[in-house]
Amino acid sequence: MEYKLKQISTSGIPEAIAKAELYRSLSEPEEAESICHDILSIEPRHQLALRLLGLALTDEFSHGGSDRFREAEEIFDKLADPYERHYYTGILYERSAKAQLKTGRPPRAVLTLFELALRSFAEAEKIRPAGNDDAILRWNRCVRLLKNPTHGWEELEFEGVGFEAHDAPPR
Fold it and tell me: What ranges do the domains of the chain cover?
């Protein structure tokens, strides 16, 4: 027996988006991912569905799922707004680095990911909408993590390429 996917209605997209957001909040990223694919099958450039799909994939990084980094990166590249492209790419790097730290990878192996996250957040900050400090909040979280001595960061040489002197990761 062959099963075929069914198509949702265009008028059902708002409710489907709400369900995808709900499943993400319930830590069920696979369910959110499936819903986003349903939306994108009828509206391939739907920006909110793309964003939610990329985030659902990064949610899976910390749930023991396969690391679908490249897939999430390609999805975030499809975001039309330059701020969102930089911001969500930063989240991609940050979440990948955190997931790898949790699996026991040494700080040296994930440092570049954190630096790429910081670079993406810095770019997003430059073009952020008025009153939107999300990129700064994510930047600060990464910096605090990099200052946490339990990971042994002080033994590593930080690149700091492309950062202002006051923005560079700690040395």
Answer: 11-68, 81-171
Cα(46)–Cα(36) distance, integer angstroms: 9
Segment (H or E) for 82: helix 82-102
What is the full per-residue pLDDT of the chain (171 aa) written as tens digits? 899 999 999 999 999 999 999 999 999 999 999 999 999 999 999 999 999 999 999 999 865 555 799 999 999 999 999 999 999 999 999 999 999 998 888 888 899 999 999 999 999 999 999 999 999 999 999 999 999 888 777 665 555 434 443 444 333
Q: Using CA atoms, how far apart are residues 96 and 91, in angstroms rounded to an integer?
A: 8
* Contact predicate 38/15, CB 8 Å: no
What CA–CA distance (Å, rounded) separates 66 from 84?
24
- Residue found under tokens 């590593």: 156
Residue 156 carries which DSSP code? S
